[in-house]
Amino acid sequence: MEKKSESDKPIGIFDSGVGGLTVLKEIAARLPEEDIIYLGDTARVPYGIKSPETVIKFSQQNARFLLEKGIKMLVAACNTSSAVSLPALREETGIPVIGVIEPGARAAVRSTKTGKIGVIGTEATIKSMAYEKAIKGARGQGAKLEVITKSCPLFVPLAEEGWIENPVAEMTVEIYLKDLRDKGVDTLVLGCTHYPLLKNTIQRFMGNGVLLIDSAEETAKDIESLLKENDLLLKGKLSIKNFYVSDNPERFSKVGRVFLGENGLGRLSTVDLSRY
Amino acid sequence: MEKKSESDKPIGIFDSGVGGLTVLKEIAARLPEEDIIYLGDTARVPYGIKSPETVIKFSQQNARFLLEKGIKMLVAACNTSSAVSLPALREETGIPVIGVIEPGARAAVRSTKTGKIGVIGTEATIKSMAYEKAIKGARGQGAKLEVITKSCPLFVPLAEEGWIENPVAEMTVEIYLKDLRDKGVDTLVLGCTHYPLLKNTIQRFMGNGVLLIDSAEETAKDIESLLKENDLLLKGKLSIKNFYVSDNPERFSKVGRVFLGENGLGRLSTVDLSRY
């Protein structure tokens, strides 16, 4: 078998479930020639209500599975995993590892004018304070900014149910975000890969003066830069996308269509991650 | 060490998380002298969106852990697990195994006058058709009854968030249950251990003419009968309750208080279930 050059290898993306498809979609739009392997840990979804130790263990198993497939870059397309497991993943892999928190935090620092940034995410992400650390640690004015955070546990089930613009979604958005709006944030980081599905409803409630930061877009830009820097960009071929889940492929396909549209999903297989 | 007699042993209860505490509460009220070991699989919660194969595998691991503790009876206090894994659990254990579906189904058959029974539960429970089978298979008029089912995926996250009587809960109840109400069911089975938390809101929407069946109460009655039949009732001592979770004991304690009240939880430990 011919040995693949590094740049020919696929990008590996994992998420706790379908949420990371928002990141895949942005990568595919920006880098249409790259092969991608996507892994959704649907047997153990969601990660947002679990402890850091458990999220790290699950993330390591996901990474090992993808490494075995021969990837050139690992993307943790899950805010909860990015918040707690990047150091462990970097220690384990010899390839570039990228999360979704740093890119979103940097974009928020660039965008704010009032100096008040809101961050919403799962319980685990908010509790980790990863966004505060990334924003305060950003170059320039980071240290002087005010960061106001709020966990929104019902946004993930609402997005998965497809209730993204109905009255239940509107009222839930109001309850969770009223305080952030009243405090006058001018930038709001959507710190969970599911939240972009609720973007319209969130934007309507927060008002047009507030900029919503979608980590998926920012992460895709970072991936492109990192591939260029490491001379790993793939050019001039048709891309292949393979999907793996740890459970319930039917549900993944169904919910995946909410994220990617009717023809979005490629080949889908099931894998037992507890072996990794 | 003195050998324990069978009746001295504790009852083992498992659930995917905190939901089974509604069953524990009813057992403790009815059988205050029984020792109980409760296991919540919080590392892999929820089960309701997972495949039958995965739910069976997780349930078997839960059962093995409890069997190792020396229990006299196994209670699957989770509708999703009861819907798909009882045959596998009975094959694996030499002790009585009881689920929450049969007791609820029997109570519904006894109660209905119009012959129209509604059943609500998780996606996995509804898809399994376990309630239809249990109702149709019940003695007496079972076969002639009409069963109308509806999965309500947002009820579990709403209950865990403690949003059980607010406007979001009310609107969600209306969207999910309107069809069942319009079709004139006179009995509604709350086919998920979380749903009794939403009982008031559901009752208000369905009207006082509709009887809500809480599997927890019915299951506790069945457990008492089964212990009597097998001469396993424990008498004349103070009961001990031990709690185990596979992840995030802090969150379990916090949400557990919504179910059991401030002083409800006993000793709580964490266990790695993937070893079983």
Instruction: Note the beta-strand portion of chain A.
Output: 15-25%
Class by SSE composition of chain A: alpha/beta
Strand and helix order of chain A? EHEHEHEHEHHEHHEHEHEHE
CATH architectural arrangement of the largest domain in chain A: 3-Layer(aba) Sandwich
Sheet with the most strands: spatial strand order of chain A: 4-3-1-2-9-10
Total strands of chain A: 10
The largest pleated sheet of chain A is described as: 6 strands, parallel
User: N-to-C terminal Cα separation of chain A, in Å?
Assistant: 25 Å
Oligomer: homodimer
Please provide a written account of the structure.
- The structure is a homodimer of 276-residue chains.
- Chain A is an alpha/beta fold.
- Chain A has 2 domains: 152 residues, Rossmann fold, CATH 3.40.50; 115 residues, Rossmann fold (3-Layer(aba) Sandwich).
- Chain A contains 11 helices and 10 strands.
- In chain A, the strands form 2 sheets. Chain A has a 6-stranded parallel beta sheet with strand order 4-3-1-2-9-10, sandwiched between helices. A 4-stranded parallel beta sheet of chain A has the order 6-5-7-8, with helices on both faces.
- In chain A, helix 1 crosses helix 10 and helix 4 packs across helix 10.
- The radius of gyration of chain A is 18 Å and the shape is globular.
- The model of chain A has no long low-confidence stretch (mean pLDDT 93).
- Chains A and B meet through helix 7 and helix 8 of A and helix 7 and helix 8 of B.
Brief sketch in words of this structure:
The structure is a homodimer of 276-residue chains. The first copy, chain A, is α/β, with parallel strands linked by helices and 276 residues long. Chain A is built from 11 helices and 10 strands.
